[in-house]
Amino acid sequence: MTNRNDIEQLFKTHYVQMHRLAVALLHDDDFARDIVHDVFDSLLDESHDITISSCYLLKAVRNRCLNYIRDCGIHQRIAHRYFMENEEYDGEDWPDEETIARIYSLIKSEISPQSRRVMELRFSQGLPFARIAASMGISETAVYRHMSHALIIIRKKLNENG
After folding, report:
1. Global pTM?
2. Contact, 79 vs 89, CB < 8 A?
3. Torsion of the alpha carbons at 145, 110, 117 and 85, rounded to the nearest 10
4. How far, in Å, CA of 80 to CA of 98, rounded?
5. Are 14 and 57 in contact (CB under 8 A)?
6. How far apart are the C-alpha atoms of 127 and 123, rounded to whole Å?
7. Phi and psi for 13 in degrees, rounded to 5?
8. What is the phi-psi region of residue 27: left when phi exceeds 0, alpha when psi lies from -120 to 50, beta otherwise?
9. Tens place of pLDDT per residue across the chain (162 aa)
């Protein structure tokens, strides 16, 4: 059932219900819309040997929403870990343009290529940890470790230079 017309019919039939579920889980209309579209996009990209039902589509939306929520939690833990030791952080004036330039410079010069790639995929392209792991052929734990290691180096170098 990977025929484009069949998927279009599924979209027309089930979009409203799928979107409503995503909004209920995420409380954000834009992210909910993106997730529902991602589910249909994945149907176009993959071959399926099963009959795609309403139940399948709703479970796919639910799982993607839960993955998104999990990834947001991981992102918040990383940000908290960075800011936890930075006493100069006041929330409004930081980071300034100079600090951002220094961070980019540190990423290019001090971070390993694999950690640099993880940071690029996460922060520049906004990919969730699961997709980063899949694209790089590593575990999600390894992605988290690369990110954590890179942030430790950046924090250390920023604190050394004032």
Report:
1. 0.47
2. no
3. 40
4. 22
5. yes
6. 8
7. -80, -40
8. left
9. 457 788 888 889 999 999 999 999 888 888 899 999 988 888 877 666 667 888 889 999 999 988 888 777 666 656 655 555 454 444 555 566 777 778 888 888 889 999 989 988 887 778 888 889 999 999 888 888 898 888 888 888 888 865
